[in-house]
């Protein structure tokens, strides 16, 4: 059994919070550049150029890519041969978030009560944490700060099995259309199919972590990703909703077996500031 100190986890998370908000992943930058080359609308091209300039400035000056520095969402693969000492995992993560958001001058966007007393927690905690137990003696921590604009445009539905592939296509396209400019396109569209009511959204959010250009290993779903991306980019929303051919950079699908009577589907939309960082301890 390998021992990992809670303090080390907190320090790692602190750095992840700042790095994720300052540095856009290289695959997203490459996709934005390719979008700039493909975009036919002069206004759309200008928007994409401004986005790319913003990415460069944020990295050089170590300032947030966006004023909405997001709710801290974590996906953690916890090795079953790891024992955490000196504290518990969730407290260590929240400690790292508090320190990272304070030191990095990142906006605190969490309210302590969602309905009756929406007062700011003032340190961006508590975090949203998804833990998966895996073989091994390491901990993989992925942080995906999620802004409110794109997240609010996401949807989940329990389709009927008879709705089939066409029903899934219609739901995804309609969700992107409804989002319009509110999700700060060009977007990445995460789609979760199967599982149950709570599993599908988790699949959709996890799909956003896949590198742009990497398809689902199942050829049927890979073809569906390509078809949906083409259809979305023919809708005409364009960069920042100002018209054009580059509404989405990617459509990523994850799926899971489900009940014979169900066809759960979730769409989680990610804005062009597709922030996520990871570390292995």
What can you tell me about this protein's structure?
- This protein is α/β, with parallel strands linked by helices.
- It folds into 2 domains: 2-20 and 65-146, no CATH class; 149-274, no CATH class.
- It is 38% helix and 25% strand.
- It has 8 helices and 10 strands.
- A 4-stranded mixed beta sheet has the order 4-2-5-10.
- The two termini are 14 Å apart.
- The relative contact order is 0.20.
Briefly note the structural class of the backbone: alpha/beta
Mass-distribution shape: globular
Number of strands: 10
Which percent band covers the strand fraction?
15-25%
Question: How far from one another are the termini?
Answer: 14 Å
Q: Helicity level, as a percent range?
A: 25-40%
Q: Work out the radius of gyration.
A: 19 Å
The low-pLDDT segments are: none
The number of helical runs is 8
- Compressed to H and E, one letter per element, the order equals EHHHEEHEEHEHEHHEEE
Write out the strand line-up for the largest beta sheet, numbering strands in chain order: 4-2-5-10
* Tally of structural domains: 2
Sheet having the most strands: 4 strands, mixed
Overall mean pLDDT stands at 97
Give structural attributes.
281 residues; alpha/beta; 4-stranded mixed beta sheet; 2 domains
Blueprint (SSEs and pairs):
Layout lengths: L1 E4 H17 L3 H13 L3 H20 L9 E9 L2 E4 L3 H15 L24 E7 L4 E8 L1 H4 L3 E5 L4 H16 L7 E9 L3 H9 L11 H14 L15 E11 L4 E8 L6 E4 L1
Parallel strand pairs: 1-3, 2-4, 7-8
Antiparallel strand pairs: 2-5, 5-10, 6-9, 7-9
Helix pairs in contact: 1-4, 2-3, 6-8
């Amino acid at each position: 059994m390998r021992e990992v100190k809670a303090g080390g986890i907190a320090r790692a998370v602190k750095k992840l919070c700042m790095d994720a908000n300052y540095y856009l992943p290289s695959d997203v930058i490459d996709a934005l550049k390719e979008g700039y080359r493909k975009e036919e609308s002069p206004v759309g091209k200008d928007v994409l150029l401004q986005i790319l300039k913003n990415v460069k400035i944020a990295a050089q000056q170590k300032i947030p890519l966006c004023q909405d520095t997001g709710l801290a969402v974590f996906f953690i693969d916890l090795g079953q041969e790891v024992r955490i000492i000196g504290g518990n995992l969730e407290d260590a993560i929240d400690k790292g978030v508090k320190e990272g958001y304070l030191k990095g001058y990142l906006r605190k966007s969490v309210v302590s009560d969602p309905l009756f007393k929406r007062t700011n927690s003032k340190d961006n905690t508590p975090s949203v944490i998804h833990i998966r137990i895996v073989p091994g003696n390491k901990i993989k921590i992925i942080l995906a700060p999620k802004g409110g604009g794109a997240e609010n445009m996401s949807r989940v539905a329990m389709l009927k099995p008879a709705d089939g592939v066409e029903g899934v296509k219609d739901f995804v396209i309609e969700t992107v259309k409804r989002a319009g400019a509110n999700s700060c396109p060009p977007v990445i569209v995460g789609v979760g199919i199967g599982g149950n009511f709570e599993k599908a959204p988790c699949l959709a959010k996890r799909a956003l972590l896949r590198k742009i250009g990497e398809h689902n290993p199942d050829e049927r779903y890979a073809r569906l990703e390509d078809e949906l991306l083409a259809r979305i980019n023919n809708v005409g929303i364009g960069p920042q909703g100002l018209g054009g051919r580059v509404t989405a950079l990617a459509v990523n699908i994850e799926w899971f077996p489900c009940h014979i009577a169900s066809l759960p589907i979730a769409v989680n939309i990610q804005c062009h500031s597709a922030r996520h960082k990871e570390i292995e301890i």
